[in-house]
Model the fold of this input.
Amino acid sequence: MLKGKVAIVTGSTSGIGLGIAEELAKAGADVVLNGFGDAGEIEKIRSGIERKHDVHVIYDGADMSKGGAVRALIDATIGKFGRLDILVNNAGIQFTAPVEEFPPAKWHAILDINLSAAFHGIAAAVPQMKKQRWGRIVNIASAHGLVASTHKAAYVAAKHGLVGLTKVVGLETAGSGVTCNAVCPGWVRTPLVEKQINDIAAEKRISQKEATNQLLAEKQPSLEFASPEQLGGTVSFLCSAAADQITGTAISVDGGWTAR
Ligand code: NAD
Done:
């Protein structure tokens, strides 16, 4: 389905981004991986996807907290492949604290990586996508892009902002062959959530298993995690012809979190 297309997935050395990169490669796209981690591990991931799906996979370690680096990632990809078809803005970080104790440096880091990186990436990618008369921009927001929770001031603000940015870009690209949508996952068991489970277990002096059950029971009516593969499937769908008229919207993959 995506043979000949080129996709950038930011933050794809782990978790949801890795699941999305795998699914896009499975559908035939060449993929640019991005994110931090051990160089040897990243090379294993890169060559593994390339071999398994018979596509071209490269790695670019651009730091998504720096607007210039985000724009350079887009330009380098277009320079290398001569095109850019799919941009998945997925890189993200979390930090939790009550608003009055929230460290300003953490606020800025979360806004930079979870929101501003998408702005810079989209701004640099849209002219190329419009020229091609085809493009897919998918912003990985969150249930926290639609509703709030305590102690997540920066994250909730950034993810609501990302859903807003998605609407604007959806409008500005409407009719051009380019679409822009947000995907809003509920809990997905990745390193980002593992840390929150550890924090609950330590704070309440309960086991990991009990902390996991509490985390799910509080928010996610299905009582099951969504998986990186399922998120990859949602992004793949948004890249299919069936989704040509889906733009400027947010799709929840949250086990019912935002239905109540
Ligand atoms: P993760 O920690 O497993 O992965 C985050 C990825 O982003 C990693 O590849 C990491 O190296 C990369 N990254 C972090 N800072 C970066 C930077 N400055 N530059 C480049 N790459 C950077 O987390 P995840 O759970 O897979 O999260 C992925 C996205 O999904 C995030 O935007 C997150 O907010 C969102 N999300 C996650 C959940 C969940 O339950 N896990 C729920 C809703 C939304």
Notes: Strands lie at 6-9, 30-33, 57-59, 86-89, 135-140, 178-185, 250-253. Residues 11-17, 34-37, 63-65, 90-93, 113-114, 140, 142, 185, 187-188, 190-193 surround nicotinamide-adenine-dinucleotide (CB under 6 Å).
